[in-house]
Amino acid sequence: MKDTGAALLILNGKGAGNEELREAVGALREEGVKLSVRVTWEYGDAARYVAEAVELGCETVIAGGGDGTINEVAGALAQLGADAPALGIIPLGTANDFATGCNIPLSPEQALQLAVKGRVVDIDLAKVNDQHFFINMATGGFGTRITTETPEKLKAALGGVSYFIHGLLRLDTLKADSCEIKGPDFSWQGDALVIGIGNGRQAGGGQQICPDALINDGLLQLRLLTSEELLPSFLRSLINNEENKNIVSASLPWLEINAPHDMTFNLDGEPLTGKRFRIEVLPNAIQCRLPPNCELLG
Ligand SMILES: Nc1ncnc2c1ncn2[C@@H]1O[C@H](COP(=O)(O)OP(=O)(O)OP(=O)(O)O)[C@@H](O)[C@H]1O
Ligand SMILES: [Mg+2]
């Protein structure tokens, strides 16, 4: 049985010191909203708290954190089926690409109001290799090593653009490599430099990688950058959103990627490495509380 209005806020431990949020939680409780708070320490905690929210009969589970936290909560909700609580979002991460793409307010107080009282909408999720989920985007490419620093070589070669590409992929060596991508009525083979598969539109801190994506159309937007031209000009065209012969674009319900060498996809910012990826949309997988001006709804 659901407890009307009850909500559980799952807060990434990185955001636990936010005073504005503490005040906003207090204010809502004074209004009579039954709001519990749990704080995560590591991967896996969020999913356990989602299970607790179901036991408590919560109508809403609120993810307080970045894209990675939303990913964990959304994935756990999707596995519950039809009677799952709705997802609310408080953006407390570094990039917050999903929340920003949805026009969710960045102020914790306003985001919390929306998360508890906002309109519920059915949205799609994407599933990868039957095991992983993403709510916002999978960005992939070929690289040898994952690092957290922008490498000096790339910076010297590309200037400011390297920050963008690095932020997008978090790879220290960007190489093109051959891969094969197949989907319904779609087939592509060639050298890919960057691949974006979007449920949402933006990644890498505001870059519109998949500008036509919608989160409730039952499709994923594939955008890939091929490597037949000099790197800096591609990147410019991607940044400016100009269509270009080096950009392949398709909207697909599923796709399969096969590569002879390892490639790494970031699923909402969390890395997954392999040679084969099957990515499929799960239409209407969860319910989410979104603002009326959410740009990702069709
Ligand atoms: N207390 C904690 N301290 C540090 N990391 C945590 C903690 N609790 C969970 N995590 C980990 O944080 C990661 C998710 O971080 P999240 O994406 O929410 O923030 P971010 O990376 O700063 O934001 P964004 O992805 O929007 O740039 C997950 O891998 C999760 O396991
Ligand atoms: Mg993250």
Automatic annotation (TrEMBL):
GO terms for molecular function: ATP binding; lipid kinase activity; magnesium ion binding. Its main location: cytoplasm. Binds 1 Mg(2+) ion per subunit. Ca(2+) may be able to substitute. Keywords: ATP-binding, Cytoplasm, Kinase, Lipid biosynthesis, Lipid metabolism, Magnesium, Metal-binding, Nucleotide-binding, Phospholipid biosynthesis, Phospholipid metabolism, Transferase. Its cofactor is Mg(2+); Ca(2+). Mg(2+) binds at L214, D217, L219. The active site is at E270. Residues 2-132 form the DAGKc domain. ATP binds at T40, G66, D67, G68, T69, I70, N71, E72, T94. PANTHER family: LIPID KINASE YEGS (PTHR12358:SF106), SPHINGOSINE KINASE (PTHR12358). This is Probable lipid kinase YegS-like. Its EC number is 2.7.1.-. GO terms for biological process: phospholipid biosynthetic process. Pfam families: DAGK_cat, YegS_C. The keyword Cytoplasm applies. GO terms for cellular component: cytoplasm; plasma membrane. It is found in: Cytoplasm. It comes from Rahnella contaminans. InterPro entries: ATP-NAD_kinase_N (IPR017438), Diacylglycerol/lipid_kinase (IPR005218), Diacylglycerol_kinase_cat_dom (IPR001206), Lip_kinase_YegS (IPR022433), Lipid_Phosphate_FormReg (IPR050187), NAD/diacylglycerol_kinase_sf (IPR016064), YegS/DAGK_C (IPR045540). The gene is yegS. Probably phosphorylates lipids; the in vivo substrate is unknown. Belongs to the diacylglycerol/lipid kinase family. YegS lipid kinase subfamily.
